[in-house]
Amino acid sequence: MTTTQKLPAIRGVHNAPLEEFYTSGHRTCQGCESALVMKLMIKAAGPRTVVLGSTGCMYVANTTYYSTPWVVPWMHTQLGSSGSAATGAAAGLKALMKKGKMKEEPINVISFCGDGGGADMGLSAISASLTHPEYNHLVLMYDNESYANTDIQVSGSSPWGAHTSFSPPGKARRIMHDRWKKNTAAMLAHGHPKSRYIATGCASYAVDLLNKVRRALTLGGPTFIHSFDPCPKGWDYDPRYSHELGMLAVETGLWVQWEIEDGVLRYSGPSRMIAIGRRKRKPIVEYLKRQGRFAHFTEEDIAYFQSQVDEIWEKWGTPGVSSVKLDLKGDRA
Amino acid sequence: MTTRTAEEAPVAGREELISGSEAIAQACALADIDVVTAYPIRPYDTVMQFLSRLIADGALKCEFIVAESEHSQFEIVKHASAVGARTFVGSSGVGWFYALEAIAVTAGLRLPVVALVGNRALDDPGAFGCEHNDALAVRDLGWLMNWVSTGQEALDTALIAWRVAEDPRVFLPCAISADGAFLTHSQQIVRVPDKRLVDRFLPPYNRGDLQLHPDNPITIAPQVNEDWLMEMRKQTDAAMRRSRDVIIEAYLDFNRIFHRDLTPFTEEYMTEDAEVILVGVGTLALPIKVAVRRLREQGQKVGFLRLKWFRPFPMPEVQKALSKAKAVGVIDRDYSFGSPMHGGVLAHEVRSALYDVEPRVPVVNFVAGLGGREITQPFAREMFAITQQAAQSGASDTQTHWIGVRENQE
Description:
Chain A is an alpha/beta fold and about 325 residues long. Chain A has helices at about 35-45, 55-60, 80-100, 115-120, 125-130, 185-190, 205-220, 230-235, 240-250, 270-275, 285-290, 300-315, and strands at about 50-55, 75, 110-115, 135-145, 195-200, 220-230, 260, 265. Chain A has an 8-stranded mixed β-sheet with strand order 2-1-3-4-6-5-7-8, with helices on both faces. In chain B, the strands form 3 sheets. Chain B has a 7-stranded mixed β-sheet with strand order 3-2-4-5-7-6-13, with helices on both faces. Chain B is globular and about 65 Å long. The interface between A and B is large, with 45 and 42 residues.
């Protein structure tokens, strides 16, 4: 593995670098939390970084010809290719440096994708990218819980029952989307032992997210971060509440913030407080009732949703991370 | 075989008995490629087997990445090429199609990726023999395309491919087609040139101010939409047009440096005084040339024109070689269902090229050798005979003849 940039942890928001490398020129919606993720991601990484962006909101809304907000080199990649883009750029840089065709220096490679590009279409490429310990790169999946750029269609990462343009509540079927897949980072963490850092984050906890990006890039090798991004357009709420909704998702226990570094799991922020029993989870209805996409929910639906969150914390072997429980006593053979 | 090395001036290097795939792998080592991505599918994958061996043995220093799909395979080299790495990739048949999204944008991005297409049928139903529809799927997208017919030509053309593709006047990807099994897997004597000569022919890849690097913070492939897309498509068109002269230049240099006498776009075989000429690409050259010789012995004025490059289409060469013929028969190892003649792709292109030639030359279309079916001497003679009938009647025969196919199977 070539060397990485040593990016020290930021102690408090007042110590965050002032330089911006994602500036004016983007056309994201008012209240777009994913735009904030982009801004924090590159603020943490700094100027000696190559960014690759999958098709999605953060491509289409950000990178209009002649008005790109990216100060760092940036390149589009296909919807399902964030993992391949990261591998390709990192491998290319490494080969050129190793063979003396390019000046040797640690260059960060970050590839981002949305939940459609990452949790759905691009999963196999991200998985493959995490098996290459010799290449330094971070794949960041910004999860706004739908194909938000193309009209808010349901994605594999959309929450149970959410109203999207592919899952409208109707007379015959109130719940058109009854899948539940919210665990992409943990899924990747469990099958890729050579990835030194996999984490979840949320821009509502900005310093935490900055430091997770820095940790991933500093440790090197292939790494992955899954961020939870409230989306005013897709979730149907007033743009001023993005930050609050992110916090509510964490405080209700729906979104669990953690990091796995070299095989050791640590919860962060309120998730840690919940996990060690110092804080009670807020009821999920406080989160659900703030969003138009759940407006069709009945009391039963809310109760079911709550039961699923309860399960994450009360029944899973590792709350919020793994549903698997260890049973050493049982021997069915 | 059509290899002509015996007649040529001695070149520094060595002679080896190797397959077409191995010849391309040797070219990769000579070109000192930086990143290669592999994924298994027959028959192209033999090149990756040879390459992995060269890398394992230290004969080539390069990142060898086994991707988890063809789509990733082509995306990885695309991005490696953007940061300035010389790349090689390849696929066959439906694998090439699985990567088609990445293949399409690689041309749009003007990235000089070089790929081997080990031509294979598009199953279903299951078939891994040679057909050209895989490569032809990208004929409109801005890929430079050629078909090689011998192991020697495979090696030579690969070196030429990087030189042309990476020329800043071009910056287009290049697909080298090699007939599955017939070329990928058959061994011939190939002269492998000395690396020092290759270095004189092939300059390092320099992406210039298009390189993706922190020293050059550009944005590649932003949203342009109706505002700018047309101008950019026209730039790709201009690059493809410019590639013709760059190819000619490359062949001149190649012949000078390696003491060879290659023609850039086509190979004419006894076409000078030929009244009837068959046209085709790839390894079917061998049986057709044999048939030409046999028929010539009987006093028949027949010839063969092989297209080496397909994109850019060698319009002047095709017109010049065919304009004096009384009839032309085009052999397609592909199909274009529902096309004007219900025939193949190549025939329609050749027919289009001859539209303005006076007097207009009748064109007959043959679909032959699909799925790797052998094109035998009787089949070759049959195609010449049908084309001779068109020469006598003076009219194109637009019905398209399927050669060597079982009758009454509808």
